């Protein structure tokens, strides 16, 4: 079936695009549109309407074609044909006109859209810039400021906003095709003018060239903070500057060069990898497509502490009422207060109205009585991290919850299978591991127990999507994917401290690499007591080598628990909460080094970076070879969406491919000799792929 059709409706030629799922501008689509436009030049049509079938207008260039040999016509070539049409073309937009999709609409002579439509240029999120005239046409149409906002944010805007800034010409109610045909008739009646954006000048409102250079300089600084380490946002400013200072065709040439530069960058390759990784992560290998989903209309949450409150917010935010159970009224009130505080923050940031915040809190019913959970479709346990307590909770749930209810645990480390054994229905038990703050962090690790049913798993994936989380599937192991990999990462940070580094040196290496925060700053934020308490329940063997936690334990024993006590690996300014290096910490480190017989020496930044990132990568390989994660890209999703790993490096596993598996393997073998086999054992899968000369991506695609 052809992806583009053309027919005459009276005086108007209708070009219909039908390339599911999102009408991406594949090669076939570009040829089809080019042919249709060409054909229409010689028929009796007086104007043309370009409209899409399916759920959306064109969602952009076909990202899966990026990085492959270019096929003619390229999108810019096609858009020249569209703009040069001697008959006016009207784009009729529904769903989302994104990236190359919006650029196609901008090459048309007029644009109309349904009220529900959205338009945007999200290329920046893929490490790109709009490469088919977007950076040149948008400022000509809506001005420099609005263009900078739209293109550097990558955030789509609603049709009404697009109309108000002049990006589209008309919002049509009802049937889109009828509205577009009506609009086309008006255009014909007014003399069928060809409104070409490329003929316009950027509106300068009398502002001087100096004004614009200052404006662009300010934007470059702002964007270097907002997109730390990223190239594309800076190149977008270069292009918009060209739109202001140069004729259309020259600007277009600059845009093309910079687009190709971005396209070939490792940053864009990483962000494109993540685009597909994020969509792939909700797919469970071997799960029948027609698995029937359970209806989730009521959710129970047990424990209204740090996590429970945030988890509750996710559900009420999408209209699903929550019953929150706590041990007593006081704890319940505390939980409700945390939720109220979180909502107050959202309201104060202008992200939510006070009325909506009240309405959502009104959807949370507090209780201390398990019987009130009898009718819940899903119950999520978020009580203390203690296996016995969790088992007791699940035993009670088994007794009161209706048959078929999903019983989930938010545990960070405990064995989901042991928790499931406390019930008579292990097939209904699953891990739903949210990340703190649970109302903000996008990751949801879904932990499949030995007996978890397909239906429970498929429903959990769907629940993740409905509450706007990015799911990643893990099998049961200590710490699942994310926290298991964190252990060797933290281990290396502690060993680097002991062997000669400082918290600020380690954190600054990792921040320059792009991590949202360095490991010691994270430790202070989460609380040094968390690791200490987790270790309390472990045998010496389970705790591992004392050198990997002796500094943290010493700080704990000094009452330095992190930000909450004003000091941990750093001191904190009581007013600004700013981190301040603390000489006392250095004393503690030196004392511990002496006690453990470790001689402190300078450690190169490069070595710190390799020790920390390769520790993550090596554990990631072990997780893959054990089948804990389904695919490398799921691990990347976990680290980018849950642990602040820089998206523009694609996640730890994609990063491993970027630097080369052989380098990683050889360095780990060296580390094994230098720092000890007890810490460094290259994963068997890593060794195997190096021997086979394969990348991880190749292995995953086999
Ligand atoms: N190219 C190729 N495949 C795409 C695609 C694209 N531009 N956009 C979406 N898809 C695929 C997805 O991978 C997914 O495939 P799957 O079903 O096999 O997993 C399928 O379409 C459906 O996508 P979603 O699951 O994301 O569907 P939603 O309904 O949730 O969202 C959407 C739809 C809002 C259109 C969202 O897919 C989206 O944001 N797409 C990307 C838009 C984008 O970034 N466009 C710019 C591309 S770059 C460009 O145009 C360069 C130009 O300037 C030259
Ligand atoms: P928390 O200590 O802040 O809250 C736990 C709450 O559970 C308390 O309010 C307590 O009163 C309540 N509670 C305890 N026993 C109960 C019972 N039998 N019935 C009902 N309520 C009970 O703990 P937090 O941090 O919210 O952690 C909860 C769970 O989430 C733990 O399993 C933890 O490992 C996990 N988790 C924690 C993360 C974090 O960053 N804090 C991140 C991801 C998971």
Task: Report on this structure.
GO terms for molecular function: (3S)-3-hydroxyacyl-CoA dehydrogenase (NAD+) activity; enoyl-CoA hydratase activity; isomerase activity; NAD+ binding. One of its GO terms (biological process) is fatty acid beta-oxidation. Belongs to the enoyl-CoA hydratase/isomerase family. In the N-terminal section; belongs to the enoyl-CoA hydratase/isomerase family. Keywords: Fatty acid metabolism, Isomerase, Lipid degradation, Lipid metabolism, Lyase, Multifunctional enzyme, NAD, Oxidoreductase, Peroxisome. With 702 residues, the chain is of the alpha/beta class. The protein has 3 domains: 4-262, 2-enoyl-CoA Hydratase, Chain A, domain 1; 299-481, Rossmann fold; 483-627 and 630-701, N-(1-d-carboxylethyl)-l-norvaline Dehydrogenase, domain 2, CATH 1.10.1040. The chain contains 30 helices and 19 strands. The strands form 4 sheets. The chain has an 8-stranded mixed sheet, with helices on both faces. It has a 6-stranded mixed sheet with strand order 1-2-3-4-6-9, sandwiched between helices. A 3-stranded mixed sheet has the order 5-7-8. The structure holds 3-hydroxybutanoyl-coenzyme A and 1,4-dihydronicotinamide adenine dinucleotide. 3-hydroxybutanoyl-coenzyme A binds next to strand 5, helix 3 and helix 11.
């Amino acid at each position: 079936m052809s992806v583009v059709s053309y027919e005459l409706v009276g005086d108007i030629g209708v070009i219909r695009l039908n390339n599911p799922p999102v009408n991406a501008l594949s090669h076939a689509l570009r040829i089809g549109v080019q042919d249709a436009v060409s054909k229409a030049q010689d028929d009796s049509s007086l104007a043309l309407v370009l409209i899409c079938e399916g759920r959306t207008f064109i969602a952009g260039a076909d990202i899966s074609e990026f990085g492959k040999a270019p096929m003619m016509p390229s999108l810019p070539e096609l858009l020249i044909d569209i703009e040069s049409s001697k008959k006016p073309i009207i784009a009729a937009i529904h769903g989302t006109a994104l990236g190359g999709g919006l650029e196609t609409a901008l090459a048309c002579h007029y644009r109309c859209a349904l009220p529900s439509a959205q338009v945007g240029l999200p290329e920046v999120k893929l490490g790109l810039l709009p490469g088919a005239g977007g950076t040149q046409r948008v400022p000509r149409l809506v001005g420099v400021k609005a263009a900078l906002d739209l293109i550097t944010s990558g955030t789509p805007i609603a049709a009404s906003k697009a109309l108000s800034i002049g990006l589209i010409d008309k919002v049509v109610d009802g049937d889109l095709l009828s509205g577009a045909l009506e609009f086309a008739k008006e255009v014909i009646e007014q003399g069928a003018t060809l409104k070409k954006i490329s003929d316009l000048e950027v509106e300068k409102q009398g502002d001087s060239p100096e004004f614009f250079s200052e404006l662009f300089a300010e934007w470059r600084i702002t964007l270097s903070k907002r997109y730390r380490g990223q190239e594309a946002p800076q190149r977008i400013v270069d292009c918009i500057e060209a739109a202001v200072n140069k004729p259309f065709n020259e600007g277009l040439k600059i845009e093309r060069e910079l687009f190709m530069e971005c396209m070939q960058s490792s940053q864009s390759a990483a962000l494109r990898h993540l685009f597909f990784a994020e969509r792939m992560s909700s797919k469970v290998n071997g799960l029948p497509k027609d698995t029937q989903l359970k209806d989730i209309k009521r959710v129970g949450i047990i424990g209204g502490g740090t996590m429970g409150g945030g988890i509750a917010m996710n559900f009420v935010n999408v209209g699903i009422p929550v019953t929150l159970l706590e041990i007593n009224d006081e704890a319940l009130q505390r939980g409700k207060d945390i939720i109220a505080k979180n909502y107050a923050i959202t309201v104060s940031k202008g992200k939510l109205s006070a009325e909506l915040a009240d309405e959502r809190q009104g959807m949370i019913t507090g209780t201390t009585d398990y019987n009130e959970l009898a009718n819940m479709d899903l119950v999520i346990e978020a009580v203390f991290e203690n296996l016995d307590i969790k088992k007791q909770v699940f035993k009670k749930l088994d007794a009161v919850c209706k048959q078929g209810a999903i019983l989930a645990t938010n545990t960070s480390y405990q064995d989901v299978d042991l928790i499931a054994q406390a019930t008579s229905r292990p097939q209904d038990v699953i891990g739903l591991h949210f990340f703190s703050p649970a109302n903000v962090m996008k990751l949801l690790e879904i932990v499949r127990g030995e007996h978890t049913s397909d239906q429970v798993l498929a429903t959990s994936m769907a629940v993740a999507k409905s509450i706007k989380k990015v799911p990643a599937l893990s099998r049961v192991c200590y710490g699942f994917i994310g926290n298991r990999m964190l252990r060797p990462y933290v281990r290396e940070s502690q060993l680097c401290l002991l062997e000669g580094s400082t918290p600020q040196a380690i954190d600054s290496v990792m921040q320059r690499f792009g991590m949202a925060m360095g490991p010691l700053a994270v430790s202070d934020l989460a609380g040094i007591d968390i690791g200490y308490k987790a270790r309390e329940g472990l045998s010496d063997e389970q705790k591992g080598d004392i050198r990997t936690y002796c500094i943290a334990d010493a700080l704990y024993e000094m009452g330095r628990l992190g930000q909450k006590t004003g000091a941990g690996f750093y001191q904190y300014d009581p007013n600004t909460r700013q981190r301040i290096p603390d000489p006392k910490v250095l004393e503690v480190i030196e004392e511990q080094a002496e006690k453990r017989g470790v001689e402190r020496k300078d450690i190169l930044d490069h070595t710190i970076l390799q020790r920390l990132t390769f520790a993550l990568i090596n554990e990631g390989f072990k997780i893959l070879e054990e089948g804990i994660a389904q695919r490398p890209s799921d691990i990347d999703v976990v680290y980018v969406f849950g642990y602040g790993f820089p998206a523009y490096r694609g996640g730890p596993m994609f990063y491993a491919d970027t630097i080369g598996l052989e380098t990683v393997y050889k360095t780990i073998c060296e580390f094994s000799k230098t720092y000890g086999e007890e810490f460094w054992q290259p994963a068997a899968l890593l060794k195997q792929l190096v021997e086979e000369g394969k990348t991880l991506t190749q292995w995953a695609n086999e």
